[in-house]
Amino acid sequence: MKQPLLLFLLALFFCSCAGMKPIDSHATKETKALFKNMGQLSKNHTLFGHQHATEYGHGWQGDVNRSDVKSVTGSHPAVIGVDIMGFSGRSTEEIERNKEALRKNVVDTYNRGGVTTVAWHFSNPVSGGGFYWVDTVSLPAVKYLIPGGVAHEEYKKILDHIGEWAHSLKGADGTLAPVIFRPFHEFDGDWFWWGKSHTSREDYISLWRFTVSYLRDSLQVHNFLYAFSPDNLFENEAEFLERYPGDEWVDMVGMDNYGDMGRDRYALDVAARKLKIVSDYARKKGKLAAFTETGLESIPDTTWWTNTLLKTMRAHDMDLAYVLVWRNDVRSPTHYYAPFPGQVSVPNFLQFYRDPYTLFENDLKNIYQRKKFLGIF
Fold first, then answer.
1. Average per-residue pLDDT in the chain?
2. Which of 20, 143, 283, 325 fits a 20 to 30 Å CA distance from 254?
3. By its UniProt entry, which PROSITE patterns does this protein fall under (predicted)?
4. Is residue 303 part of a domain?
5. Is 293 labeled as catalytic in the residue annotation?
6. Given 93, 186, 202, 235, which residue is catalytic?
7. 200 φ, ψ to 5°?
8. What is the pLDDT of residues 138-178, one digit of tens each?
9. Cβ proximity of 286 and 263 under 8 Å
């Protein structure tokens, strides 16, 4: 390629990404780099993720530098999902133990060059029932947690734990590990206490905005990217955005979808159409997009990885930063979403792994650093 044409194409590419930046103007250098690099990589690739991948897996727990995905492919997932559900509703000692265990997990991932996304199955802070909605027990907590609510000060104390933890995520090089924080997910369903039937649109948006503002502006957390992810219960952009808190409050838009991916039905055209709504909005607004949760429990379909997941993500022209499948339970013989050695979908998963479109941890090079020339990883 002649040099003027190469320079022209590079200029076009830089212009197309110029509007992409995190909502936190004081985000750390590494957080800004992760945001930019994920946006660039998503033009031709998608990072593969697995929930709780390095904490435990099918029949094991707590082994050093182990994941079921690594046992199959030789590489950890590019994205590791963790959960801060243990940061509230427990004794002080247990909360501190949970914070330390997750700190180490996130820092280890960062030191290897991988990415962490943080879910929050937040146990109801004003009633029993845990994070699920239980008709006879649960109270609609959102209205109590927002500014002016009777539990607002208690909510700030819970966020203080999260902020303290965020400030503790120092890698081997002394820099803070960025994470993708995905609170109050699947809010368009009714199964969580923050779900659609249990809070108004206005109160949900108020809770989201306060959470971001308190962490970012009051607690000075500058290594978080914020991800907004409903379930798959929308049909168009307007429905997708019904409880959207606004572009100034969100870095990443996503979708959780198990139902269309084999759990309830195989509706790949529907899943792909909804993913395109997410991707199109992200492109239009300078956000990242992701397939934030999916999977098929027990993976009995031996070609699910290429004929369902890959096919869905590649059905349209879309930019998807990552796709994450759910966890592999330690004890259950059937509750797992990623293959382990001997599982029936392993041969197909290896095809998925080798596909140039998918990226795993070993494929990532300096994702926390900005480069002069784009996309060379």
1. 94
2. 143
3. GH26, PROKAR_LIPOPROTEIN
4. yes
5. yes
6. 186
7. -80, 160
8. 999 999 999 999 999 999 999 999 999 999 999 999 999 99
9. no
- The backbone torsions φ and ψ at residue 288, rounded to the nearest 5 degrees and listed phi first, read -85, 155
Q: Where residue 10 falls among pLDDT bands split at 50, 70, 90?
A: very low
30: helix, strand or coil: helix
Across-strand partners of 132? 192
Q: Is 100 considered catalytic here?
A: no
Query: Considering the entire predicted model, what is its pTM?
Result: 0.94
Examine residue 207 and state whether it is found in any structural domain, yes or no. yes
Inform me whether the pLDDT recorded for 16 exceeds 70.
no
Nearest-CA neighbor of 313 among 373, 255, 376? 255
Number of domains making up the chain = 1
Please report, for the domain that includes residue 102, its CATH number.
3.20.20.80
Rounded CA gap, 356 and 170, in Å?
32
Quote the domain boundaries for residue 140.
Answer: 31-363
Burial of 15 (0-12, 13-18, 19+ CB in 10 A): exposed
**Catalytic residue (choose from 93, 100, 237, 293):** 293
Task: Average the pLDDT over 291-297 and give the result.
Answer: 98
Q: What angle do CA 157, 161, 167 make, to 5 degrees?
A: 135
Please indicate, yes or no, if residue 211 is contained in any of the structural domains.
yes
